[in-house]
Amino acid sequence: MAPDPNALTSITTWLVRWREGDSDALAHVTTLIYAELHRLASIFFANERDSHTLQPTALVHELYVRLGDVQGFDWKCRAHFLGVASSMMRHILVNNARRRNAEKRGGGEVLHLDEASLDARGGYAPDLVQVDSVLGRFADLHPRHARAVELRFFGGLRAEEIVEALNEDGYKASLRTVERDWRFSKAWLQNELERA
């Protein structure tokens, strides 16, 4: 289902108002996009162990608390906001996973970057610390590709939204570029994850 164009305009308008100091504007953005943020967070936890300490609602609330750090961004659009939110969710999840691993030493399962694992987590829990580490190395070599993976894996954005977010981040991207980069990224990252 395509997002309502009026809602997209509203999100951008409210983001700009928030940047300009309207303290109520973030509440409006949250109201407009909360369900989508919660859906994205739920994807991460669909196949997590029952002992997982962070839940989707808690992740979204933690994100909301941290959004104050990015109020001054030059917000361009909904995809830009979701791109920033996906980066923040990545850091929250990875930090939580690191804390969990420090408390209970034990390796995570190998993550396979096929379509199912990215869309529905393929029936197993990813080792987010390992994904973060590999993605960091990948970003050193291929920053645009890594950003696209982050937007898709941690942000759940569709290809068209990734194009928009990448262009807002200063990368020149088209749908064809994103699709080509995605094929390369999956192969490179899968190889690194299997070697780790």
Can you describe what's shown?
The protein is an all-alpha fold and 196 residues long. The chain has one domain (5-195). The protein is built from nine helices and no strands. α2 runs antiparallel to α3 and α8 (159-168) packs across α9 (175-195). The longest helix has 26 residues, at 78-103. It is globular. It starts with a helix and ends with a helix. Residues 106-125 have low confidence and may be disordered.
Structural class, please? mainly alpha
The overall number of domains is 1
Detail the poorly predicted runs: 106-125
Describe the global form. Answer: globular
Number of helices: 9
Distance from N terminus to C terminus (CA atoms, Å) equals: 38 Å
Q: Report on the biggest sheet.
A: none
How would you spell out the order of helices and strands?
A: HHHHHHHHH
User: Could you give the count of β-strands?
Assistant: 0
Summarize the structure.
This protein is mainly α and 196 residues long. The protein contains nine helices and no strands.
Write the layout of secondary structure elements.
Blueprint: H1 5-19, H2 25-45, H3 56-66, H4 78-103, H5 115-120, H6 128-141, H7 143-153, H8 159-168, H9 175-195
Keywords for this structure?
196 residues; 69% helix
